[in-house]
Every structure is written in C-alpha cells, then in structure tokens.
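Exercise (ungraded).
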Amino acid sequence: MIVGLLNGPNLNLLGTREPSIYGTATLPEIVAQLNTVAVSLGVELRDAQSNSEGDLIDQVHAWRGEVSGVVINAGAYTHTSLALRDAFTATSLPFVEVHLSNIHAREPERRHSMLASAAIGMVCGLGAEGYEYALRGLVRALRART
Ligand code: DQA
C-alpha cells in the first residue's frame, strides 16, 4: 500500500516558524520520522509540500490511482479551501487531516476546517507526533476497508 503525505503553505518553514506554536521539528525531520513509521506499518510513503493551493489540488489529482489515502496538513488552506476538499471528493481519495497546533483553541478563523467534513478523521494539537497518529489511523482505516 502506498500513502501520500501532503503539506501546505508555510509548513516548509517548520523549525523556525513560530516554534512556540508549531514546535522545533523541521519538515524534513517530520517526513523522515514518518517514513520510519510507514516502514514499520509495511506501507510506502510519497510526500509533497506546496505553498500554492492549485499545486496541492494538482497533487491530489496526480495521486489518484497511485496512493490509497493521504495524510494532509493543509496549513491555512484548511480554513478557506473548498476547492481542496472538492479535489478529495472528486478523486474519492480518503484522507486524515492533521494539525500541529490545536486549531480549536486558537483564533476563531482557525476553528473551522473546510476539509474536516470529508475526512476520515482529524488529529490536532499533538505537535509533530500527530503526523504519526494520523498515518496510523489512516492505514488502519484503509486496511479495514479492504
Ligand atoms: C496548522 C494550523 C493552521 O491554522 C495554520 O495556518 C498552519 C498550520 C497546524 O499545523 O497547526 O499553517 O495547519
């Protein structure tokens, strides 16, 4: 089984970006850790990051037929992008949403996710480790479907 990891805008700056909110792990460190978890789960990980909404949508389209599901941190597009949710529903790609911070404990504009209603589930507020929980949950859900 192949699964995708998709990171949205400004997540390429993790490590130095507001570390009191997002922690000190860099995105390459998070991806490396997730690859280790993926190997232990017996799945293959593809990963991509973009600061552009259109590129994220194109990546979801490109993964149709290639990956079985996606772990996504859409960054601020979480709160605005109906188009990104449409990309998942249009491709029927199952996904788990992840956020480093607890978006429900932050500013009101971060408390709503445009993606959540189409997601298998969401992990938020658990820092970089949340990616691991999201991957484990995604793989378990995908295996339960087959
Ligand atoms: C985030 C939360 C978003 O509100 C924010 O725009 C991000 C990161 C998180 O991982 O906590 O870029 O998705």
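Further reading is listed at the end of the chapter. For now, observe: The helical segments are 19-22, 27-41, 53-63, 82-91, 129-145. DSSP finds five helices and five strands in the chain.
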